[in-house]
Amino acid sequence: MLADGAFHSGTDIGRALGVSRAAVNKCIKSLTEMGLEVHRVSGRGYRLGEPCVPLDRQEIEGHLGPEGTQAAVAFHIVEEIDSTNGYLLRLAESRSVSGHVCVAESQTHGRGRRGRDWLATPYQNIMLSIAWQLQAGAAAISGLSLAAGVAIVRALRDCGVAGVGLKWPNDLIWQERKLGGVLVDIRGEATGPCLVVLGAGVNVKLRHREADGIGRPWVDLRAIAGDTPDRNRLAGLMARHLAAMFRQFEQEGFAAFWPEWERLHVHAGKPVRLLVAEGEVHGHAEGVDRHGGLLLRDAAGKQQVFHAGEVSLRQAS
Description:
- The chain is an alpha+beta fold.
- The protein folds into three domains: 2-48, Arc Repressor Mutant, subunit A; 57-263, Bira Bifunctional Protein, Domain 2 (BirA Bifunctional Protein, domain 2, 2-Layer Sandwich), CATH 3.30.930; 267-315, SH3 type barrels (Roll).
- It has helices at residues 10-17, 21-34, 57-61, 65-71, 84-91, 144-158, 208-211, 221-225, 231-252, 258-264, and strands at residues 38-41, 45-48, 75-81, 101-107, 126-134, 165-167, 171-174, 177-188, 194-202, 271-276, 279-288, 294-298, 303-306, 312-315.
- The protein is globular.
């Protein structure tokens, strides 16, 4: 009811929902505690600081297309959760979740790469995870996060967002600023069946109170497109393309996505420094191999291969 950005009195809200004014006040308090900005003006009622479009199952499923409809067994839309990856991993302890998708309005402990927090304004961004059972085992999923990046760029392109590139191994970049990222959790044996839970976060609209904690150049879709894209459409398209990615990846591995990833590589041919456990490695990024390993040519002219989880990539000054 508040999503339109207009004022609504507590009396009208209570009457429409069949609850007391006290219950309305309690709900408003809960929303503000989650981080949603709600203004209260005596005599006028409640109004959101900014209009928003809540996540809606039917709207999302309407954008899945045949590929997503066949693959996504169930959608879980949650108001507030520690993390969408964590939700699906806990659910997997009691049932099969392959093909399940979780989308959240707010995350209290969203995770980025290497243990960093993922910060996002509640009710304004995309925090989505998809679970998939892979028969080949954990040892055969090299390059999965890179393939996921390609899938998300395709979804953004379908939403009319152009110019998004990829930074190895799992960042979405627009004009040298971070737009989103991918996080992969794996449960299972190295050579047997394993469950992959792949989380993706995309900045749709960030408030500065969250953005100030990011600590690196960032951008959101509102700044890129000039307005706020339909989150339900983007969530549906992301689920659609990620499901299609998993099916193709099962059959062909990262090699099927390698040419497109190379075209999207924002550091291709540029001088970079890699932060590794032993220190720093300087050289030129030459792309990735067909398993997703970063190819770096050092100052001595020797080409080295680095794999996800070992290094952090920064463009050299």
